[in-house]
Design a protein that fits this description.
The structure is a homodimer. Chain A is mainly alpha-helical and about 160 residues long. Helix content of chain A is about 55%, strand content about 5%. Chain A binds a DNA duplex (23 and 23 nucleotides) through helix 4.
Chain lengths: ~160, ~160
DNA sequence: TATTGTTATACTCTATAACTATA
DNA sequence: TATAGTTATAGAGTATAACAATA
């Protein structure tokens, strides 16, 4: 994806009638749309995360799945899907992929024979440990990009959401 | 998507000792990841936007394209793509779609024969007017969901980003 | 009847590469 | 050589519907 230069506050042109506060391209109502800026941030976050975890080839969705399985060993696919707002059907393929890589397992659930009890393999736990370290680097980069204060305020606001 | 109540640092509840404040499923490190919550919010925003603009069948990306073309008549596809962080290749298909619906036009650019000068048709302007009204409803819904104060703080923080 | 996991389909989006016509 | 627009392709992600096994 293309680099996103906001131009909005970029001091690129030397002489611009109304100073360089005027954007090169007018965003019009988008300038007052929270949804627009949330998407821009989300795109940045996603790309930085993917780049940093590329050595172990773990996507944001895969990371969240590994984290939640590890913290809730034996939970079902339906519970996992609901928790992470992933479609049940999509989760099936995601788990197939992780299982093929030898990171997760579907064990028979005691009691309800419809369910699978999910858990990580040893390899899965090892990958998760590396993933968590890299994800912390990513989070640190995000904190630096936003400034520590803004990061903190944002995190607290969004946690309540 | 599932409703997400975070409960973690909310000063909203008066007394919440150790009751059902504990989530059914443990999110582990995800609880401290800004990126995770940004995605949750982004998903909510996207779905609400799509639902509200479904009567005129305009997606968030299409909306942003119409807005920026209208506010910058004659700009090129490359400029538009860079501004909105859309891939050049993706923008081609997006504009093909809007053009087939009779909402946008690619006119010859004076001077550089490689470029197209983009502009809205009359129908495009009419649709954009309706889209802006519906998008304002969406924004109002978002403001209510977050509370007016949180909405304002978030908007100001993210605008600087 | 409802739920769990699964398969299938269609559509959108992202990420690339390569091509053409201009500059 | 570089840029603007285009085509093509592969892989994710989203949204549905339907099915078998089980509750």
């Amino acid at each position: 994806m293309a680099e996103q230069k906001r131009a909005r506050t970029l001091p690129l042109r030397k002489t611009q009638p109304r100073q360089r506060s005027r954007p090169v391209v007018d965003l019009n109502v988008l300038n007052d749309r929270l949804g627009y800026f949330v998407r821009r941030l989300q795109v940045w976050v996603f790309q930085d995360f993917v780049r940093r975890l590329s050595p172990i080839d773990i996507s944001p969705a895969q990371f969240s799945v590994l984290v939640v399985i590890d913290a809730n060993r034996g939970l079902s696919q339906a519970e996992l899907a609901t928790t992470l707002a992933i479609e049940r059907a999509r989760l099936v393929r995601l788990l197939n992929h992780l299982e093929r890589r030898g990171l997760t397992q579907r064990l028979p659930s005691s009691g309800d024979r419809r369910r699978h009890a999910l858990q990580l393999t040893r390899d899965g736990q090892a990958i998760l440990a590396r993933a968590k370290a890299l994800a912390e680097d990513h989070e640190a980069a995000l904190r630096q990009k936003l400034s520590a204060e803004r990061y903190q305020v944002l995190l607290e606001l969004l946690q309540e959401f």
